[in-house]
Queue: 2 jobs
Job 1
Amino acid sequence: MTNPEFAQDLAWVRTHMPKLQHALQDLPSLAGVRLACSVHLEIKMIPLFEGLLARGAALFLTTCNPTTVRDDTVAWLRQQGADTEAWHGMTDDEYAAALEHALAWQPTHLLEMGADLSTALHKRGGPTTVRASLEGTGSGISRWQQLPLRYPVFNYDDLPIKEGLHNRHMVGLTTWQAFFERTRLSLHGKRVLVIGFGSVGRGVADAARAFGGAVFIAERDPARALEAAYAGWHVLPLSEALPLADVVVTATGAGQVLTAAHWPLLRAGAFLLNVGHRADEIELESLRAFPHETVLPFVEAFAVDGRMIYLFAGGSMANLTAGKGDSLNSFDLTVALLAAGTGHLVSAGASAAPGIHLLPRAVWEPYLS
Ligand SMILES: NC(=O)c1ccc[n+]([C@@H]2O[C@H](COP(=O)([O-])OP(=O)(O)OC[C@H]3O[C@@H](n4cnc5c(N)ncnc54)[C@H](O)[C@@H]3O)[C@@H](O)[C@H]2O)c1
């Protein structure tokens, strides 16, 4: 039986997604489409998947990040007819098996956040049934650039309505919402270091300043560092910035940004957060070698050479692991984009050449208002 709170929440989510409903109505029949999805599986995705099922698509749902899976969402979608293989906290081996099973299911199309399915598919080689993929993360696009592409991939991460809205405005807001709610701390009187000045880092920095933090930036690309300086941010090399920071946020899309070499530089009481796609921006193995315990849900304390350091949300995406992610009104546009993008994969996009293509404006523009 469905939990009444979940049912109430789902009804509320559905009510606030008019753009998605518009995009779903415009979809062609999806009969014969086998869509394998490696995406965040939480309640805001349900109306999209319900709509795709109603159009006749077969769905195989797995995650792109085991820490963001909500088991009630997966159970609900299984009841609606999707094949699912995802649960909160699945191990790396279990996740790798789920990707293999998704590929063995013989998908015709992929919906991805992070390119894990396509990376597994290209690693295993051999013939593929996949005709096209839709990718929505900067991390995924970077991985795509390393793959010998066998089908067209439509990038919606770099669209002004994804990067410029969700990445730029939503991640910062919702990261700090989650941090405040979970820790009962605010940023007043705190020095906040944001590592990485892409659209996500900018948004995190803007929101931190708006919430009272004194913010500075570490950025390894000198051109981006200069952009940050022109925007008025105090920019410092990472090794100089770390000893000053009360709260450190990684927002890079790169692995191993904070490692064992950095732990001695941290101030007592410093918080470490990650908002990048993967939980590998903060290197956890060396951190976990120090005595540690969970002191609050989503907060672990580490005794590092006599100083207490706090890790938020296990170094996984702070806003989605410890919080609820985007506002419904903003996410409505993101899922409308996913619905319209799926329509493109199975229509005009099907004849595109293998390679990375920006999702054309004509596909998403009708859903802006
Ligand atoms: N949490 C969320 O909900 C959410 C939403 C959207 C995107 N993301 C993820 O956030 C990450 C960043 O996205 P983006 O669009 O801003 O990417 P981006 O590539 O535009 O920006 C990342 C920046 O980090 C810098 N960088 C990389 N390694 C660094 C290092 N070691 N030290 C300092 N700077 C470094 C790069 O030079 C670049 O300027 C990606 O992993 C993306 O998938 C998360």
Job 2
Amino acid sequence: MSMTGTGLAQESGTIKLPPPETEGGMPLMQALKARHSVRELDSKLLPPQVLSNLLWAASGVNRPASGQRTAPSAHDWREIDVVVTIAEGAYRYDPPTHTLIRVAAGDIRPLTGVQDFVAAAPVNLVYVADLERMNEASADDKAFYSATDAGFIAQNVYLYCAAAGLAAVVRGLVDRDALGTALGLGRHRRIILAQSVGYPAGRAR
Ligand SMILES: Cc1cc2nc3c(=O)[nH]c(=O)nc-3n(C[C@H](O)[C@H](O)[C@H](O)COP(=O)(O)O)c2cc1C
């Protein structure tokens, strides 16, 4: 067992997140009023509980009996993996176990975008579609549905961030070849979008 710099306990490359807080929070209509993109992010780390809540909001299991998620997916394919890049490495969020499973060592946050603020954001999420989970769909349908499904997750993240006082911006500007190589993605895994999350810059700590 080792502790990461984010205060997350890691064992054999797996981080067990605290259970998400799924009660209370800002009323939905207020969160919708507050949602907006923010590109000025503080480098301050997200506490483990906040990271847990964020990932559950993004694509966590909200119906344990079926394993279905907070975000819808076409045909219930659940083809979008949320890859969490933090200073310690890149981790795939596993919704059924609410754990992070390391997929790459080292800090690859700078590779998740081309804009200056990206490298300093404490968390950059990367939405990766596993096209093999989309069965016999045509190439066009795979592209279309993986894009829509990633969009739902990104909006869940935006709304959680609005409710929790966090800053976020979804990003299509990504060097997909460089990031795909760093993440060791094979041909059937495609990077759809990235999203930076952190505290808004300029707030008193
Ligand atoms: C699919 C998509 C891709 C985007 N890509 C980027 C991006 O690469 N970089 C960026 O700074 N903002 C990006 N944005 C954020 C938009 O610029 C932003 O949502 C838009 O300006 C509206 O602002 P708002 O989100 O505050 O309403 C993207 C938004 C979407 C929906």
